[in-house]
From TrEMBL:
Residues 542-551 have a biased composition (Basic and acidic residues). NCBIfam families: mutl (TIGR00585). Keywords: DNA damage, DNA repair. This is DNA mismatch repair protein MutL. SMART domains: DNA_mis_repair (SM01340), MutL_C (SM00853). This protein is involved in the repair of mismatches in DNA. It is required for dam-dependent methyl-directed DNA mismatch repair. May act as a 'molecular matchmaker', a protein that promotes the formation of a stable complex between two or more DNA-binding proteins in an ATP-dependent manner without itself being part of a final effector complex. It comes from the Bacteria. GO terms for molecular function: ATP binding; ATP hydrolysis activity; ATP-dependent DNA damage sensor activity; mismatched DNA binding. Residues 363-499 form the MutL C-terminal dimerisation domain. Belongs to the DNA mismatch repair MutL/HexB family. It comes from Deinococcus arenae. Residues 217-332 form the DNA mismatch repair protein S5 domain. Residues 540-563 are annotated as: Disordered. CDD domains: HATPase_MutL-MLH-PMS-like, MutL_Trans.
Amino acid sequence: MNRYPGQVTSPDIHVLPAHVARLIAAGEVVSRPLDVVRELVDNALDAGATRVEVEVDGGGLRLVRVRDNGAGIPAGSVGLAPLRHATSKLSPQASSVDGVTTLGFRGEALWAAAQAGELHVVSRPAAQVGACEVLAQGEDVQVARASAPAGTTVTVRNLFARLPGRLRTQAPAASEVREVTALLGRYVLHHPGLHWRLTVDGEVRLTHAPSDHRGAVASVYGPLSANRVLTVSGEGVCGVVSRPELTRARRDRMHISVNGRPVLAPPELEHAVIEGFGELLPAGVAPLCVLDVTVAPGDHNPNVHPAKQVVALADLPGVAARVRAAVAAALSAHPLARALPELRPAAQPTPAPGHAAFPALTLLGVYQELYLLAQGEGDLWVVDAHAAHERALFEHLTRTLGGAPPAELPEPELLHLTPEQLARLHERAPELQGWGLTLEDFGAGLARLRTLPAALAPLNVPRLHEQIVECALGDGPDPRRDVLARLACAPALKAGMLDLGRGQAVLDALAGCEHPWACPHGRPTVLRLSERDLAHAFGRRGARDVPRGRDAAPTGGPGVSGS
């Protein structure tokens, strides 16, 4: 084994002296300024604060200060606060660890901060006359009387000044500030009912006044994003999720908390959010979401990660199902037609419509042999005929699949499969046979196709059998849906196949769909433009400037266009 010069490994085992052990343990809870901020903000929230102010200087190495107006620490207990494992959040009984109801609970945050820097605490409960002040550095703790408003202010200075090895490995100040700002943004998103302020080197970087989740999105990501989110409310799940047009290639704006704690979401919960969109999202993109998940204290373990960023859930599949259902319900309660591209740069985003019914559309004409122009509810609608027909065919196939006995092939067909496809065949064969697709391993990399679902057998689709098998044995999580989406695309109307008669039939079929707003692959089927937007674009004022259609306030019935 290679060693650095002078490195010696002793075969003897010995117990480290207490002062050495303390230096090592100081990094278990506090290894960077971000950890100090997280721990102190957790303490403020556990104290019932309605106002939390964070200050950071020098990337947090020079100073971290968190001020709150919470319950405060009584004078009789304040001297215990910087001691290791001293906490008010767990009882001495071992069973209390199995039902944690607070964000902080280990009793190590203030102790670790005192080991790694200079800790200064000033605290006063509202009913107490006078405040108490604690100065702690290492094992030296001093308590004195002070004057301060109700609440607690914790300051940590000169972080790692006595630990030069750890100080040299810290990230640049700008990088740490970016991480602290992102962390405070997450707390704002998951605790929107509080006052928040972040100050960096004397400059205010983030402020938030009490509001709801939508207001928190506005504070963190701006009003344009806030105007494109929908409220989510379900069993043990609340928050907001973006409309389908607001997506990103990464999942960095999918935020989930468990019992108030911002966490690194398990992949199962992220997948549940995306699955809640169904076909409204194209593959490879993710929405913005802020979801607060609530479970019984005994049904989660927050003590599985040093920084408490990961929690273990006793019933993760059940929680995922509730998240999926809540997101799907939020989306189904709103019309999801996307606005037409703006006609001028200064145009404002179209307000979110107020109800979910698909309008009765009257065909006006056909554009470029692919798009339908229609009117309804006082608005102009542009319909992608291919996407709309594809949606209608997909839902028709979904309804009829399994409605009749499977169709036997006159002669079984042998198909070549890859090793991955054969593995999936062994896993999925019963499921496939359940909806009429009988496919048997024939050996030597071959499979024998014996029956097809009756709804699919008569489709005039090139390479029908190969396409069905390819999708049924693909890497998607829902082979049934993948097959139907592929087969709905091929026969859907293409450019050049449209006329007025077919166009009206497409509109009627789309109106009868359960999810008319997007094709099975997530592309929008319709775009809308209100007459008011047209009037603005042409510089009209007066009667034409009155909100109509879905831009009008709800009155119990559809809007009526002006003459």
